[in-house]
Write a structure and sequence with these properties.
three-stranded antiparallel beta sheet, 4 domains, Isoleucyl-tRNA Synthetase, Domain 1, RNA-binding, 14 strands, Gyrase A, domain 2, Rossmann fold, globular, 571 residues, alpha/beta
RNA sequence: GCCCCAGUAGCUCAAUGGAUAGAGCGCCUGACUUCGAAUCAGUAGGUUGGGGGUUCGAGUCCCUCCUGGGGCGCCA
């Protein structure tokens, strides 16, 4: 990336200035390159000389002048300027900018990719909603974050696996099975009450009817426990199929569905448990088995580990096995992290969790450390919960309370593209309020259409060009010197930087903002510059501009696809 | 009580410690007999919740207070 080239260019210039005696000797500070907000400040800028003022005991502007004097000028540099109070502003060469159109046309769908991952393996685990009900809009935010993050990491050179963790054992699935049994029995006319704490949602009534219609009274003729066991399996299969379909409707597909139960069946849990136990991490107390966190501080004090997430250390012990012998959810999580990092050998495991699971992060980090693994190999993306309203009224929602606004409902109302874009625009840290009534009303003015319109408009230009028999063959991109053309290309070549930013900060929402800026640059260009024209004097420029808009179409499509949004040829 | 996240234009939200805090929606003014007006060009709108501090420079970092959300179970 140009940005990295610039960093090196400036670093070399500083060292050279020191060597030649223009600047005193001091340790090089980190050279940061930023994109100035003000167009007049060029394409890139660095404030590094401001920070060097004290080290060099010189005025920042003087330092900047001496650094600039020692800078090499490779072909991509247009001009370099020093600006008060000591910025170095770099403007790219217009000729080099224009030439990037050819680069984009060569790289096509790979344009925007960067190699930060170096082929290392990362697993992104997302949604992982309990398979006891349909996906909610909250799961939608999880899905969009995780899925887009996976796209971004893949574009950033990581080998990515997308995983859905299926909680197919434990209290909730038992309640689900018992609830289903009741609904099934009711469908056959029996007066079977819903269990206490059961799932009251209407979807189970439907499922009970379906199973009754398909299997008749087969399950009623069994022992009750046996029937519930059979219905649990049947219900789980149906629920997972429904979840898969709901996720698919949003364009989300998984590489692997990991069963929680399999962690026990495949003795992953046993292996991990024995390791922790033999190393003294587990303690028996009050009839239960606890993971102790008090060992932690002694273990690696001063080890200098730099957590990506500055979490508070876990300060309390947590139950792994209940006094009745049943493992807790935490027990599964322990086995699962071992499964991810050791057995399957992922270099990095990313979990996408709602903020309500925040309290579990520190104990997961603690367990990872206890297993002798680098805690930086697990990262938790926490997103703030979505509060829902309908017509201004708060909707209290939950699978266990029965009232649900399903993801499918929203996708059917406003479409997958608008849903994804809407859920992706905000950073994960911001709590969002979603009024379904308003969202439906406003879906037609969702900015996603502005971006897609740009893509469709270009497709239309090509349809028109074909009618006129105009092609881009032999187009000379060096003719692209118009300010609107240059501005558009400058936006286009930002994509790799945006991908890098999203991957480094694990915040894919930058994509939505970039997409709008890119589309805006295109629409401005379109208004100012005629692409296809009958004017003979325009022929050469027209060919060059066809190349430009094809490149723009490519970058728009790549950006949209990273977000999991379609790039329509017409709309 | 303790911990985490947030508070920025009327609304929804951006802004790797940098220059004059930006978009979209909404408001107002202009632009379609030539490639798609789901568009473009422009106007208005701000004490970045309050108060201290660090820094050459703070929306961003630290302290404190206020408001909202979430967590602190042998629940998941």
């Amino acid at each position: 990336m140009i940005r990295d080239d610039l960093t090196q260019l400036i670093e070399r210039a500083i060292k050279k200035a020191q060597k030649k005696g223009d600047l005193p000797q001091f340790d090089l500070p980190e050279v940061t390159i930023e994109r100035p907000k003000e167009a007049a400040h060029g394409d890139y800028a660095t404030p590094v000389c401001l920070g060097m003022a004290r080290l060099a005991r010189m005025a920042p502007v003087r330092i900047a002048e001496r650094v600039v004097a020692r800078m090499d000028r490779p072909d991509f540099i247009g001009s370099v300027a020093v600006a008060h109070p000591g910025f170095i502003n770099v403007t790219l060469s217009d000729a080099w900018v224009a030439a990037q159109v050819e680069t984009i046309l060569q790289e096509r769908e790979r344009f925007g990719h960067v190699n930060l991952g170096g082929g290392r393996r990362v697993q992104v685990e997302y949604i992982s909603a309990n398979p006891t009900g349909p996906l909610t809009i909250g799961s939608g935010r999880n899905a969009v974050l995780g899925d887009t993050l996976a796209n971004v990491l893949a574009a950033a050179g990581w080998q990515v696996q997308r995983e859905f963790y299926v909680n197919d054992m434990g209290t909730q699935i038992e309640l689900f099975a018992a609830s289903l049994y009741a609904r099934y029995a009711q469908a056959l006319g029996h007066d079977e009450p819903l269990p206490e704490e059961g799932y009251p949602g209407g979807y189970l009534v439907e499922m009970g009817k379906e199973i009754a219609a398909e299997f008749g009274d087969r399950f009623l003729r069994m022992e009750r426990d046996e029937a519930i066991r059979a219905l649990r399996a049947e219900g789980l299969t149906r629920m997972l199929a429904s979840i898969k379909a709901d996720a698919g409707a949003l364009g989300v597909h998984f590489d692997h569905w990991k069963s929680e139960q399999s962690l026990y069946d495949d003795s992953v849990y046993g292996t991990v448990f024995n390791k922790l136990s033999s190393e003294g991490w587990l303690v028996h107390r009050e009839g239960a088995i606890w993971f102790r966190s008090d060992l932690e501080d002694r273990q690696d004090s001063g080890s200098g580990d730099e957590d990506r997430q500055r979490e508070k250390r876990e300060d309390k012990d947590n139950v792994v096995v209940r006094s009745d012998g049943r493992p807790t959810y935490f027990a599964s999580d322990i086995a699962y992290v071992g499964d991810k990092l050791v057995i399957r050998g992922f270099d990095w495991a990313i979990y996408v969790w709602g903020a309500d699971h925040h309290g579990h992060v520190s104990r997961m980090k603690a367990v990872t450390r206890a297993l002798g693994l680098d805690p930086n190999r697990v990262t938790f993306i926490l997103y703030q919960l979505v509060t829902l309203k309908r017509g201004g009224e708060l909707v209290r929602m939950g699978k266990r309370t029965g009232e649900i606004i399903t993801l499918r409902e929203v996708v059917e109302e406003i479409g997958a593209d608008a849903t994804r874009f809407m859920l992706l625009t905000r950073s994960a840290d911001s709590q969002m309020e979603l009024d379904l009534t308003l969202a439906v009303q406003q879906s037609s003015e969702n900015p996603v259409y502005y971006v897609q319109y740009g893509h469709a408009r270009i497709a239309s230009i090509f349809r028109y060009a074909r009618e006129r028999g105009v092609s881009l063959e032999g187009g000379d991109v060096s003719l692209l010197t118009h300010p609107a053309e240059q501005a558009l290309i400058r936006q286009m070549i930002r994509l790799p930087e945006v991908v890098a930013l999203c991957a480094e900060t694990l915040s894919p929402h930058h994509l939505t903002h970039y997409a709008q800026e890119l589309a805006s640059a295109f629409h401005s260009f379109y208004k100012e510059c005629r692409v296809v024209s009958d004017d003979p004097a325009h022929t050469e420029l027209g060919k060059a501009r066809l190349k430009l808009v094809l490149a723009a179409k490519t970058v728009l499509a790549n950006t949209l696809h990273l977000m999991g949004v379609s790039a329509p040829e017409a709309m």
